[in-house]
């Protein structure tokens, strides 16, 4: 049995903005990623689509990721986007670094949580919070891209994939 440990940044990056908050209240902004269903998927190249490939693996441990700049004031949140570019994903269930653990070939839904700040959040249900779900952010977790065009898009678009870029395509400043 082989086990692949993958540490990836979420791509594309999820960015959110907030409006109509108390400008003086402090807030923590968190993200978690939950399974969409209890199925495992596979990609059918001849159909260019995802197909159900069976029952889901046991769920990975659930983790909350607190944005590293939290807490924010409501006024700060009104003036900027909150970007989750530093969120790291892994399929290693033994991870101790706080990365979000996902099962490869399963579908997931990111959720954003806005919490009235009282300190570090360990149990969301013990807090005053609102959750936001954007259906267009559902994704299938993969450990490697099989489509070279998707791989190229990620390398060209993702600032954290610089090491994979062909140095002959880099400009003088990037070299």
Automatic annotation (TrEMBL):
Official protein name in the record: T-box domain-containing protein
MF annotations from Gene Ontology: DNA-binding transcription factor activity, RNA polymerase II-specific; RNA polymerase II cis-regulatory region sequence-specific DNA binding
Record GO biological process: cell fate specification; heart development; positive regulation of DNA-templated transcription
Chain ranges of the T-box domain: 1-166
GO CC terms of this entry: chromatin; nucleus
Gene3D superfamilies reported for this sequence: Transcription factor, T-box
Keyword Transmembrane (UniProt): no
Domain of life: Eukaryota
Organism of derivation: Aphis glycines
Chief location bin: nucleus
